[in-house]
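Sequence, please.
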């Protein structure tokens, strides 16, 4: 039987097969491959760095928190219970993490050609030192190797942060969060820069599970009575000030549609009271969310926090999964959006203000060239977030560059954002983005659209300077 080929990463992965373009891409990539990583938007738990305890076993680290991974397995009939995904009711799920990892090994062939498969392969090679392909036969050997690797001091969270060459990492935090772990990090003798980002969804969206309890928590943590709309707005302003004091430079909202509308205090107060009394409707929730997008923009004009919105996804499409397992379990599906009309009130009011920055993401690729690039190519405040979520892939990134660059240019975009919950995958994600940008720029150089010295400047800006300036880092 032939010896199995070792798991390796080809130096030219993601580059064009055209020899001339591949050579140029290599030169461009080498300019940025070791550039520090800026991570201004993500979902890594700050508890990791506050406690600095060893990462758990491979299943706990790489499978259970990663909806990119387990959604594929679920689509092939693997029950989420067998993958150890926690149930809302605390019911029984698989507790033997070796069995969970074995399942991943059994089905790892499903990830061929996918971003998840490519990230995980690079993660295993460069972060965890794995040199064998994950399969049914190798799963337990790899599990034991990763477990041993994670137990070493050089693989504690803070040590990994430094090894990854991360300059700054932003978490995503609710207004009701006390930011205690951020404070622990600040009080420690470690100088890694971990900052919060203000995400108000769980108090601005009436349809959030436990919304009234979240409003009670907001009252408690802010010390402001939120039984009125006026108090609610004051509490949000107070929490934004606190977040900014703790290092925050941005806010973020995940919304179904990018619709913005100023309802006025009287109408907004009426809807708020309906929600407090449990009488809200989906239409009420949509209107209030649109109003709060306007209010967040107005607050950003005042306090300078960069505003982000992530529309274009119908979350929790599968109620059977949502009811049992809750949020973020892989059942989120892209939908069509209308940025031209929905954002017009906000951009007309704030889009020309030099103190305001709005970064827009979308899963609706059809809007890139038709709506978003033209809007960003005009309004000074509007910047385009990178290819996001399902589009955070080789083809998705290339489509993004091809459809926005001619109208918005490179400098109305904000570089790469990894937007991850899986901390060890951060270097792989940035590396893919840098390789794809090198590939795209190499094509422009080879076709004499750009000179090489221009491409050299652009690749550095895309990898570092645009994120740093856009997010005020």
């Amino acid at each position: 039987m032939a010896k199995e080929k070792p798991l390796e990463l080809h130096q030219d992965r993601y580059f064009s097969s055209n020899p001339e373009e591949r050579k140029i891409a290599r030169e461009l990539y080498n300019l940025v491959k070791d550039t520090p990583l800026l991570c201004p938007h993500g979902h890594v738990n700050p508890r990791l760095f506050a406690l600095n305890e060893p990462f758990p076993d491979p299943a706990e680290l790489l499978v259970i928190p990663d909806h990119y991974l387990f959604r594929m397995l679920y689509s092939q009939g693997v029950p989420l219970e067998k993958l150890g995904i926690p149930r809302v009711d605390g019911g029984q799920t698989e507790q033997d993490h070796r069995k969970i990892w074995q399942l991943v090994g059994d089905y790892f062939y499903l990830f061929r050609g996918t971003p998840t498969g490519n990230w995980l392969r690079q993660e295993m090679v460069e972060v965890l030192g794995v040199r064998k392909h994950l399969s049914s036969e190798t799963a337990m050997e790899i599990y034991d190797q990763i477990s041993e690797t994670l137990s070493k001091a050089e693989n504690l969270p803070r040590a990994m942060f430094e090894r990854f060459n991360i300059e700054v990492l932003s978490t995503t935090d609710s207004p009701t969060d006390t930011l205690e772990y951020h404070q622990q990090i600040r009080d420690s003798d470690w100088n890694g820069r971990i900052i919060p980002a203000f995400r108000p969804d769980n108090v601005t969206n009436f349809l959030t599970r436990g919304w009234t309890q979240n409003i009670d928590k907001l009252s408690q943590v802010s010390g402001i009575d939120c039984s009125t709309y006026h108090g609610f707005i004051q509490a949000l302003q107070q929490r934004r000030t606190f977040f900014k004091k703790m290092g925050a430079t941005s806010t973020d909202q995940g919304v179904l549609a990018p619709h913005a509308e100023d309802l006025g205090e009287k109408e907004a107060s009426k809807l708020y009271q309906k929600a407090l009394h449990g009488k809200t409707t989906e239409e009420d929730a949509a209107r209030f969310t649109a109003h709060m997008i306007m209010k967040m923009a107005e607050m950003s004009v005042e306090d300078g926090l960069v505003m982000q919105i992530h529309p274009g996804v119908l979350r929790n499409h599968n109620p059977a999964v949502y009811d049992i397992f809750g949020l973020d379990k892989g059942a989120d599906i892209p939908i069509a959006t209308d940025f031209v009309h929905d954002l017009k009130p906000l951009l007309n009011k704030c889009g020309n203000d030099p103190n305001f920055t709005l970064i827009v993401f979308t899963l609706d690729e059809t809007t890139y060239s038709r709506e978003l690039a033209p809007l960003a190519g005009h309004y000074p405040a509007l910047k385009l977030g990178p290819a996001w979520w399902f589009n955070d892939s080789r083809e998705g990134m290339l489509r993004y560059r091809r459809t926005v660059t001619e109208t918005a240019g490179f400098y109305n975009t904000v570089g790469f954002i990894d937007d991850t919950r899986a901390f060890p995958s951060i270097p792989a994600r940035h590396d893919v983005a840098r390789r794809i940008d090198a590939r795209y720029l190499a094509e422009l150089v080879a076709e004499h659209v750009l000179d090489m010295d221009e491409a050299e400047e652009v690749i550095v800006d895309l990898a570092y300077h645009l994120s740093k300036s856009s997010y005020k880092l």
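The longest strand covers residues 166-170.
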